Amino acid sequence: MDLVKVKDRSGLYRDEYSNGIVNMNENEYKTYMENYKKCYNEKQKIKNLENDVNSIKNDLSEIKDLLRNLSK
After folding, report:
1. Whole-prediction pTM value?
2. Domain ranges of the chain
3. Number of neighbouring beta carbons within 10 Å of residue 31
């Protein structure tokens, strides 16, 4: 992989083969990964809470049905 430094941009290089930009700044990469993991964990937390709420809704519906049957 041949990299050429991007003019006026520290830490950025262009891959001559794919023409893609590569960020070689390790601190920026670590910061990006930390932010990505935080965002991912928040999404997972929300998904788990949604599943818990749906489970509680189903349980309440079953309880209501049982109470209706008992009252007949």
Report:
1. 0.64
2. 3-71
3. 11
